[in-house]
Amino acid sequence: MNIGVAGLGLMGSGIAKRLINTGHAIHVYNRDKSKADIFSKSTTVAKSPSELASNCDLVVSVVTNFDAVKEIFFGHAGIVESKKRPIVVADVSTISPEQSVYCAHELRKHGIEMLGMPVMGGPAAAEAGELVPMVAGNRQAFEKAKPIIEKIGKEFFYISENDGAANVIKLALNLNIALIAMALSEGITLVKGSGIDPSLFVKVLNSTYFRTGLSEKKGPLIVMNDYTPSFHLKNMLKDLDLASITAQTRGIALPTTATVQQMFRTANNSGYSEMDYTAICAFLAQINGLEKK
Fold first, then answer.
1. Exposure on the CB side of residue 236, measured as CA atoms within 13 A
2. Is the full-model pTM beyond 0.85?
3. Orientation of helix 165-193 relative to helix 233-249, angle to 10°
């Protein structure tokens, strides 16, 4: 199977490296060509999404938002302009269920099957093949893509044939992450504001039943003010926005998510957008006068 990766940001680069390291000769495309050039010695760099798709049986798209997805799929020299059929597109991008449904339906008009395939895990997990993909869409297309999904995921879940179903679960998971990050940050802020070393709080928390993967991996970095991004705060805000819109269209109230959404928006607008999403803790420290930004 010839595989293409469209989008070489933090996550896309990790997936591309994983596929290369597991013996696949892949094709890559990125709108910013400099990111693709890094892979030029080990892959074939396409000049457009159409060229990428023309040489692939499966294209994994990994871009930031719906506008970028539409550009890759339907824009100038987009995937739909490729003459090769059949093609399966597995979209890893975090977009809303309705946006995923739209893309799947439009691609199908052009004879292309799309799988909504959001994943859990960061760039390091992608490179190590330890992502957790969630897949929705045509079962036959899923079976075709399955050998590659197994290479990038330590475990994966086929949700259903209903387009957009995997995106609902992805948004529910990401709002969990945001709420846990907020709770951890408020605990650290309370301890720090009381004159106690917050690293002690993190150590105690991580010795209890209430520890999380986030508190274990991110907690020590937070207390060292290390906000090197594995997932940008601006992208967490985008996902909280998508979760809120998805809930509203279904008449579902998510009151805690709405509050945390506004905290992330304020942090985003206060200069923390390009930092890791856990920089919500640095923002809390700033508004409480504990530290200057």
1. 35
2. yes
3. 120
Task: Give residue 292's pLDDT.
Answer: 58
- Give the CA angle between residues 74, 79, 81 to the nearest 5°: 85
- Beta strands (DSSP E) in the chain are 3-6, 26-29, 44-45, 58-61, 87-91, 112-116, 119-120, 132-136, 157-160
What's the distance, CA 101 to chain centroid?
18
For residue 135, give both structure tokens.
Answer: 């897949």
Q: In whole angstroms, how far apart are CA 281 and each of 168, 176, 190, 207, 257? A: 27, 16, 11, 21, 17
**Rounded (to 5) percent helix, strand, coil in the chain:** 55, 15, 30
3-161 CATH pick, 3.40.50.720, 3.30.700.30, 1.10.3720.10, 3.40.50.300 = 3.40.50.720
Q: Give the model confidence (pLDDT) of 270-283 as tens digits.
A: 999 999 999 999 99
Distance CA 202, CA 42 (A): 42
Contact between residue 120 and residue 173 where contact means Cβ atoms under 8 Å apart = yes
What are the boundaries of each domain within the chain? 3-161, 168-287
- CATH-assigned architecture of domain 168-287: Orthogonal Bundle (1.10)
Residues 24-42: pLDDT tens digits?
989 999 988 888 888 988 8
For the chain, what is the largest distance between any 2 Cα atoms, rounded to a whole number of angstroms? 65
